[in-house]
Amino acid sequence: MTILTRRAALQVAAAAAAAGTIPEVLAQMPPTPSTAELADRPLFGATLRTLPNGLRVAHVEQRRAPVIAQYAYVAAGGGEDPPGLSGIAHYLEHMLFKGSRRVESGEFSRRVAREGGNDNAFTSRDVTGYFQHVEASRLGLVAMMESDRFASALIPESEMESERQVILEERSQRTGSSPRALFYEEFAAAMWGRQHWHGRPIIGWEEEIRAIRHADLMDFFRARYAPGNAVLVVAGAVSGEAFWDQIAEEWGQVPAGPAVPRDRAPPPAEIPVPRFVRNDPRLRGEATFLRSWQAPTQTAGATEHADALEVLRHLLGGGQGSRLHRALVEGGLALAVGASYDGDTASWGDFDIAATPRRDVAPERVEQAMMAEVKRLLDAGGPTEAEVARSIRQMSAGALLALDGLGAAPRMIGGALAIGMPLDSVEFWPRRLRAVTRDQVAAAAVAVLGQSPSASGWLLPEGVAAPAEVPA
């Protein structure tokens, strides 16, 4: 399952607002606070405490329905996989459903289902997360089961091979059978290096998944699944000291353990493969063009550019009205364009632009047009004041819409805390965004699009030659 970051949740919600697709029922609700009013108060009003064993716990009271969501995060994801053992964080996620001291193998999900709830887990590059949505009075049950899993997961060697086959099949279906997924995986390896933490697939390279031993899983579990290296977020219809007493009773029994520093290599000084082209005979649809720059985030590099890069991403490729959409989609060259950037990550990230050309348009025209837009932005000294204001307005609208989902607060807050960001980075995100200026966006564009190492790539049908690269 894919983790939903604060940026992704608000980006989707903002897109809905910009496209006028807010459900009619929301339009009929009482007026919501303005963006300015929202920026001056916390989004969720979370309370954060640390248990004696080192576990950080955030609590968000929400009374829209008599349900709760419990999310437990380990501050270790695919980026913490040891060299030669890519996929081990994801493999361990699977194995944690194989029982613990008080819960038999497979019984965790069955108990949640019997209570009318649902549960799942996910591994991202930065975290491994486990969650349950249940009726509010069942908090004690899921707190007991989840804390027991962290304290005494069995990870039985006898079930390891069958689960390995499940993971290999998952890799085959999600990546091996998809020309685009395979292209993006190979592009990342080309840009960052096959064994760089940013270049390895989260699910792992096939040969390395096959090489993971039981002792490797146990070592990773013992080193990383400690209260000091974890975050718990509970949102829903539960409040007061009764909540904290219940959490302390169950989670306080997990033996103390320290936080584990992330040891992530910096970006390569030179891109290993700056131009990557893949011709796939299975490709029957449109081609894909991708350009990616190394980029700082909230936690690494020139962190002062992170918020401005969020705005730059939106005005450059954030749907209808963005520069790339007007130039390529409305210009008849591409079926779709986009830009992506996530500042809420541990260590360095990337800033990407991508396009799906129309079938009757030569690839070189698309690449030339995209890079011309980047050059035009830089030559003009950055975007206009109106573009920046529009992007901030649309992105801020997403903050309002994000308040309604039960899982939004746990995912946003837990993901931020697990990578070392403060609670306020989520609670007062609209305030930070509103403070971004045109000059800051211009400076971020120069620092990344104008100066940072980059790579480009094409996914093309068999027999179609890639065009000459257009310099960044």
Automatic annotation (TrEMBL):
Keyword Signal listed: yes
Domain Peptidase M16 N-terminal: 69-193
Pfam families tied to this protein: Peptidase_M16, Peptidase_M16_C
Highest taxon, organism lineage: Bacteria
Keywords tagged on the record: Metal-binding, Signal
Extent of the signal sequence: 1-27
Peptidase M16 C-terminal domain sequence ranges: 213-395
Family assignment from sequence similarity: Belongs to the peptidase M16 family.
Protein's name according to its UniProt entry: Insulinase family protein
